[in-house]
Amino acid sequence: MVAGLFSTNFVYGEEPDEKVKRIHANAITVDTHVDTPMALLNEHFDIGIRNEPPASRVDFPRMKEGGLDAIFFAAFTAQRERTQENTEKAYEQAHAMIDATYAACDKYNQMAQVAKNSNDVKLLKEEEKRAIYIGMENGFPIGTNIKRVEEFYNRGVRYITLCHSSNNNICDSSTDRNGPEHNGLSNFGKKVIKEMNRLGMMIDVSHISDKSFSDVIKTSKVPVIASHSSVRSIAHHKRNMSDEMIKALAENGGVIQICLLDLYIKDPDTTTVRYQKEKELRNVWETKYDTMTEDEKKELRDRWRDLGKKYPKQLPTVADYVDHIDYVKELVGIDYVGIGSDFDGGGGIDGCADVSEMPNITAEMLNRGYTEQEINKVWGGNFFRVFAEVENYAGKLY
User: Among residues 185, 198, 157, 196, which one has the least CA distance to residue 74?
Assistant: First the structure.
């Protein structure tokens, strides 16, 4: 492996660390999913200064340290009972997180800027600014109002993760405790897919059921993304993608962005006290977070931090993470894999605990003999290819 380290784009006298820095700096790098907008709603969090994990894993200074050019801030809303009142609360919360994202970029406009087009990242990189794209995790705020898809697009949202941990009006989730409701995409969900195609909005298949995924592939006229998913054959969580799904995604021209959340990288030891405690807290996070008061949310975050102190666990390593990239490369080729951390939503591993440590992924790929061209594709080339294809399709419709 190491023997291939200097096999491409060799610079005479260049040390390995220097090569990592050079290749990482030259690449267009993007992390396609973080949940940082939740933190932006906390008046005590300042994204313009350096923070420390686990309180936060993303801020503008650490993005610069980690050579991360672009990031997708996901406006996340937890799935609740689909009453009109709950839908409207989710709708308002999604808008609040989008508002907070714009406000943060306005406040620190010399450091970052909201981006809306696939080419914006290159222009902002030249200005040494971070490109902050907006996604929406869970289509719950749309309810059954198709007009809201365009409304969110006009606000800058460039992908929608169709559902989260439970079924919604669009499709079935991979993890709903009651099983499938629509047997894949609902009739309304098919309309949402077509509307997203029309607008030039990327379809995110992370979290959705296998049948929902199959329906999306059949319905969409453009490639789709999995903004933060990993390989089920390695880590057997049903949230991950099977070999068949990854093959279908590649045939569609899409891309799987490997997630940095430990449960999706390596199968956990389910016998530990830590695992049971974490499972309880994760259940509260996924089912009750949206209904909590700010004090209750703070208490939950404090409990999560205390859990890490009282029951530290052995996290997967960057090497374990790159095993997933290797797997996709061997299964379907280098053109269909990328990086989506899920930082501030559970993501973080040994050697890549926050955005400042992302060059370690580049170093590991180099150690395994990846060429500079391959690394460029993984870090952003593949994803922005899909982004541009989605935009171009929409442009041809008008």
Answer: 157
Residue-wise pLDDT tens digits, 43-69:
889 999 999 877 789 999 999 999 999
DSSP-derived pairing of the beta strands 112-114 and 337-339: unpaired
Q: In degrees rounded to 5, what are phi and psi of residue 241? A: -100, 135
Residue 320 CB partners (closer than 8 Å, separation 6+): 265, 266, 349
- The predicted pLDDT at position 208 comes to 98
Of the chain, the percentage scoring pLDDT greater than 70 comes to 96
* Residue whose entry in the numeric block shows the structure tokens 């009651």: 178
Give the three-state DSSP class for 30.
strand
Q: How far is CA 276 from CA 279, 282, 304, in A?
A: 5, 10, 13
**Could you confirm whether domain 2-266+316-396 is CATH 3.20.20.140?**
yes
pTM, two decimals, is 0.91
List beta partners, residue 255. Answer: 225
DSSP string, 127-178: TT-EEEEEEEE-SGGGTT-THHHHHHHHTTEEEEE---SS--SSB-BSS-TT
d(CA 383, CA 223): 10
- In whole angstroms, how large is the CA radius of gyration of the chain? 20
Whether the Cβ atoms of residue 205 and residue 244 lie closer than 8 Å to each other: no
